[in-house]
Amino acid sequence: MSTTPDTYKTLEEASPEVLYKEKNSKFFGYAFPISSEDEVKTHIERLKKEHFSARHWCYAWQLGTTKISYRANDDGEPNNSAGMPIYGQIQSFDITNVLVVVVRYFGGVKLGVGGLISAYREGAKLALEASSIIEKTIDVHFNITFDYKNMNKVMRVIKEKNLNIVSQKMEENCRIEISTRKKNAEMIFAIFTNLFEVEIKEI
């Protein structure tokens, strides 16, 4: 049996705004669930409009379950004093498909690199603590192709194994896209491979 995890943690919805203050500087923290890098830009642009007089909009994001991609952005703060501390919190909460942004209003007193690291880390931590974190399964998708006459045996397996139907196209030739938890994928693939006149392909 495969022991690779087939669940991951992410956010159910965007977090409420949180505020952390340090020596007159204000740090507003936000966390958002995301499914693509394009969404990062949208959230940042909206926060720049909302906080147009802020000094820095620092952030980090992580995407993916088996293959991870991430980015950390200091947005003008000293190198690695903002983006990486924010990313560190994403890692310590063990979540993915998430964007965390900390918006800073400068309060007139310099915090130094150490002060910035702890303030950005705290802003990110508060945003994630205020979020509802949920567990989701890592799913594998398959396309099943078959003739109409084989519909019953295909549907029987789908029902018995409790598979999700993502989409279906029923013409003279039928095609159904199904998804199943990663840990069951090999077994499901084997079942459909052994069905006469049924073709299965991983997407």
TrEMBL record:
Query: Where do the Impact N-terminal domain residues begin and end?
Result: 23-128
Q: Would you say which domain of life the source belongs to? A: Bacteria
Q: Which Gene3D superfamilies match?
A: Impact, N-terminal domain
GO cellular component: a single term: cytoplasm
One GO BP annotation is:
regulation of translational initiation
Q: Name one Pfam family in it.
A: Impact_N
Concerning its family, UniProt says:
Belongs to the IMPACT family.
Protein name as catalogued = Uncharacterized protein, YigZ family
- This protein's species is Flavobacterium terrae
